[in-house]
């Protein structure tokens, strides 16, 4: 692994080199270090010779003037000096945090909150390990019962916890894979001046649009990020980031997207890129507009009705040439309409007609949004306050996961709640318009996008246009645009649009970089595609987060690559710790990306190996069944020479399963009926005929068919019945070849001779661990059937009840609760899991 000096050493070398350069040019400034740094002008008195006197304690990055200010002051190598000051401030803050953590650990031990602290056991290592095992290990169930965070907080050794976890899951192979992936890159950390988001997105299979947003920690985005933080307020943005994540990074949010028919816009079920966040923002604003419509109608209904004059009553009082006062003008224009507030004259005709209808006893309808908004403006109604007051008791964001949150406001509500509502509107979940109408009718508190809308409205980043009722950008975003409009031509940040989803993503990065997220308590979803995991890793790398920071947020370092400081190596699984005793660093964002791609390649290689084994078992099993029965029936039929088979006595034939015999019998009947083998007729008609024949034969086989006779014999049970069935099938064997058998076998559950013993295990959609293993021995049979039948409804009857499809359905229902496999994915998607 490559080795260089620390970042502090690098900056000190930079300082000395610049001083030497100035001295060589006889330009060494003699300006003393300013006594106080209480204004930008004072900061600009700092030079390379006097910067050694800079004490960063008590200063933040926001106190330092911009690079442009240093350049305008003609400071030598202004950008570098600016970077040096920022580094010193960051270094001081990092040391302070480290000292605070150490002090807190000691306080916990002194308060007897760390009963597993090694210091309590002296040199008795065995007693220490026994205490740790007693606290975290269920010996009867052979599993870990205490989470890593709680275990470490009690003073336990993370290395020992990982050892117990390895014993539970026998996961040392996984640790070795992580080590191999990490071994491919080294890094001496340096500032990131350029990051190509489009290229990174492309390499991870995502849309280039997914990475189009400002990145904290990238120099090219620094100006835009500073403007967002300056106008949005750092604390307000942190709060928005946490609350947004608590609403958007939930399984129920993805479920609502799917039910509304919006999932086709996205490249994956769960992601955190710009494309998905924009869709989330758009839906949140649509929910707010619907809520305003409802609340404005309710408000309007409370206004007093104007008197309805009798038909024919004169209303032309006063001088017609001079306009009446506004209130009178509105009343006169309405002429007795069901108008509760002075409306603009342009609505006179429509409201007058409405008034006449009301006077005649016709049912009055709710006035248009335009009329209600005019009334609201006349009364000075605050539209934002109208919606917020109506939803004052609704918990959003982090408040939903606070300790005192009620069951109704937390994730304790039924996971399939939205699906049940949608299914009442459309039983097969296909009528998206009906589903959207049903979901749109729910209160804001009952949909994820309603909660996200309230989050934006409460934070002030969204408001309402008083003339249209549309949700629009709030004051902070408007200030951002106004500020960037004043930048000189060519200045970084000039032309930035500050789309609301970009501002939201900066807020999310800010919350992540400041470790304000708790993936476990907030029940946040993990993003297990390459792009999603890489994005979290990138944010961590750009902002200096390391392994300890990940553990504080409840993130599993085996899911997302992260840098490891030398003193953090002890927190790694033993196999990785030994390989990287000096820590783990990444040179560039590309090196970080490569780690995730390599991990995916390792997974793909393992998957492809299993796939090949399954295919070989399936094909060889079919060939074995056919050759065995052909050989067994050759002597009786006299066809051995013609078919190339070696005749054998039926009693000497290797025993076959009942499933194999029934499948071969069905094939013999299909061949006799001229439905097999399938002919390539170009339009699939031959395949449809075979499918129809097999479905009918399996449901009600003819008594004199091969399948009917085999079923009758097998119904008695016992080994003798298998032998009798074998004789029946062998008698018809001459008509069946391997091609015909393989055409037919996809319409029945695969015989055991054609299945490959295999288990699959899915991770939960949160940080809670793994689901129970499930057998998918029939995966290649499912694959073969769905490669032929590419749409639901025409697949063989057994497929949806297969082990493979049930396992995939269970996994998908973690996110798309209440939906069946055929409702949330297509046969091609299942095949794509195995395709390579």
Strand content: under 5%
Oligomer: single chain
Q: On the 0-100 scale, what is the average pLDDT? A: 81
How many beta-strand runs?
6
Helical content class: 40-55%
Given helix and strand content, the structural type is mainly alpha
Shape: globular
Q: Please give the count of helices.
A: 36
- Spatial separation of the terminal alpha carbons: 33 Å
Radius of gyration: 36 Å
Largest sheet: number of strands, sense, barrel closure: 2 strands, antiparallel
Question: Which residues form runs of ≥5 with pLDDT under 50?
Answer: 171-195, 265-269, 308-363, 406-410, 636-647
Order of strands across the main sheet = 1-2
Structure description:
- With about 850 residues, this protein is an all-alpha fold.
- Helices cover about 50% and strands about 0% of the residues.
- The protein is built from 36 helices and 6 strands.
- The strands form 3 sheets. The chain has a two-stranded antiparallel sheet with strand order 1-2. Strands 3-4 form a two-stranded antiparallel sheet.
- The longest helix is centred in the C-terminal third of the chain and has 49 residues.
- The protein is globular, with a radius of gyration of 36 Å.
- It starts with 6 loop residues before the first helix and ends with a helix.
- About 10% of the residues have low confidence.
SSE inventory with pairings:
Elements lengths: L6 H18 L15 H4 L23 H6 L5 H33 L14 H12 E2 L4 E2 L3 H6 L4 H12 L2 H11 L14 H7 L18 H11 L1 H15 L2 H9 L14 H28 L24 H9 L13 H12 L9 H11 L3 H8 L26 H9 L6 H9 L7 H12 L2 E3 L6 E3 L1 H11 L14 H14 L16 H13 L4 H6 L21 H6 L9 H49 L2 H4 L14 H15 L12 H15 L6 H9 L4 H13 L6 H8 L13 E2 L13 E2 L3 H10 L14 H10 L8 H4 L2 H8 L2
Antiparallel strand pairs: 1-2, 3-4, 5-6
Helix pairs in contact: 1-4, 8-26, 10-21, 11-20, 11-22, 13-16, 13-17, 13-20, 13-22, 14-15, 18-19, 23-26, 26-31, 28-30, 28-31, 28-32, 30-31
């Amino acid at each position: 692994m490559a080795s260089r000096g620390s970042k502090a050493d690098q900056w000190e070398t930079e300082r000395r080199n610049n001083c030497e350069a100035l001295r060589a040019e006889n330009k060494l400034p003699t300006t003393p270090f300013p006594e106080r740094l209480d204004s930008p002008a004072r900061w600009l008195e700092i030079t390379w010779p006097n910067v050694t006197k800079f004490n960063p304690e008590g200063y933040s990055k926001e106190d330092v003037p911009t690079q442009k200010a240093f350049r305008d002051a003609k400071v030598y190598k202004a950008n570098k000096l600016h970077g040096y000051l920022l580094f010193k401030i960051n270094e001081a803050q990092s040391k302070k945090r480290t000292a605070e953590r150490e002090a807190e650990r000691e306080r916990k031990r002194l308060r007897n909150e760390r009963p597993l602290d090694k210091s309590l056991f002296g040199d008795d290592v065995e007693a220490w390990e026994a205490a740790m095992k007693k606290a975290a290990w269920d010996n009867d169930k052979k599993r870990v019962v205490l989470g890593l965070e709680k275990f470490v907080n009690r003073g336990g050794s993370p290395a020992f916890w990982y050892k117990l976890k390895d014993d539970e899951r026998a996961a040392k192979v996984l640790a070795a894979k992580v080590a191999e992936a990490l071994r491919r890159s080294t890094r001496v950390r340096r500032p990131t001046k350029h990051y190509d988001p489009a290229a990174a997105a492309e390499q991870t299979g995502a849309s280039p649009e997914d990475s189009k947003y400002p990145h904290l920690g990238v120099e090219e985005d620094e100006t835009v990020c500073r403007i967002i933080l300056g106008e949005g307020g750092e604390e307000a943005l942190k709060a928005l980031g946490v609350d947004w994540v608590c609403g958007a990074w939930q399984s129920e949010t993805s479920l609502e997207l799917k039910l509304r028919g919006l999932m086709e816009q996205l490249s994956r079920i769960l992601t955190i890129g710009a494309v998905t966040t924009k869709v989330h923002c758009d839906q949140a604003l649509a929910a707010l507009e619907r809520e305003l419509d409802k609340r404005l109608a309710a408000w309007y209904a409370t206004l007093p009705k104007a008197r309805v004059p009798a038909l024919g009553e004169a209303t032309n009082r006063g001088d017609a040439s001079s306009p009446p006062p506004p209130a009178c003008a509105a009343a006169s224009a309405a002429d007795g309409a069901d108008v509760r507030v002075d409306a603009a004259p342009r609505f006179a005709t429509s409201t007058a007609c409405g008034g006449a209808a009301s006077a005649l006893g016709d049912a009055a309808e709710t006035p248009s949004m335009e009329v209600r908004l005019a009334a609201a403006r006349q009364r000075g109604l605050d539209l934002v306050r109208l919606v917020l007051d109506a939803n004052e008791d609704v918990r959003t964001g982090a408040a939903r996961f606070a300790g005192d949150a009620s069951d109704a406001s937390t994730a304790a509500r039924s996971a399939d709640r939205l699906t049940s509502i949608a299914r009442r509107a459309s039983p097969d979940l296909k009528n998206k318009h009906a589903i959207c109408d049903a979901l749109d009718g729910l209160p804001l508190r009952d949909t994820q996008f309603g909660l996200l809308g309230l989050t934006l409205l409460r934070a002030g980043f969204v408001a309402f246009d008083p003339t249209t009722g549309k949700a629009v950008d709030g004051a902070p975003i408007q200030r951002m645009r106004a500020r960037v409009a004043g930048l000189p031509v060519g200045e970084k940040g000039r032309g930035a649009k500050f789309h609301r989803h970009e501002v939201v993503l900066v807020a999310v990065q800010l919350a992540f970089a400041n470790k304000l997220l708790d993936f476990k308590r907030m029940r946040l979803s993990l993003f297990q595609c390459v792009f999603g995991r890489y994005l979290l890793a990138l944010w961590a790398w750009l902002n200096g987060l390391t392994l300890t920071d990940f553990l504080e947020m409840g993130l599993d370092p085996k899911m997302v690559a992260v840098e490891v400081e030398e003193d953090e190596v002890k927190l790694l699984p033993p196999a990785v710790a030994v390989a990287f005793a000096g820590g783990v660093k990444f040179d560039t964002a590309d090196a970080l990306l490569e780690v995730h791609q390599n991990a995916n390649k390792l997974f793909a290689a393992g998957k492809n190996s299993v796939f090949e084994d399954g295919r070989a078992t399936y094909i060889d099993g079919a060939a074995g069944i056919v050759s065995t029965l052909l050989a067994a029936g050759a002597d009786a039929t006299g066809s051995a020479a013609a078919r190339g088979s070696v005749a054998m006595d039926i009693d000497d034939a290797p025993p076959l399963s009942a499933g194999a015999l029934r499948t071969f019998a069905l094939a013999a009947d299909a061949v006799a009926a001229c439905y097999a083998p399938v002919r390539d007729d170009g339009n699939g008609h031959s395949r449809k005929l075979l499918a129809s024949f097999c479905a009918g034969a399996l449901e009600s086989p003819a008594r004199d068919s091969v399948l009917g006779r085999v079923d009758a014999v097998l119904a008695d049970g016992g080994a003798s019945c298998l032998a009798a069935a074998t004789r029946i099938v062998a008698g018809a064997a001459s008509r069946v070849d391997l091609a015909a058998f393989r055409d037919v076998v996809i319409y029945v559950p695969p015989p055991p001779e054609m299945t490959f013993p295999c288990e699959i295990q899915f991770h939960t959609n949160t940080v809670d661990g793994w689901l129970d293993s499930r057998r998918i021995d029939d995966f290649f049979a499912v694959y073969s059937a769905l490669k032929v039948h590419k749409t639901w409804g025409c697949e063989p009857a057994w497929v949806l009840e297969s082990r493979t499809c049930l396992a995939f359905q269970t996994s998908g229902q973690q996110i798309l609760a209440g939906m069946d496999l055929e409702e949330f994915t297509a046969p091609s998607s299942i095949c794509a899991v195995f395709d390579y």
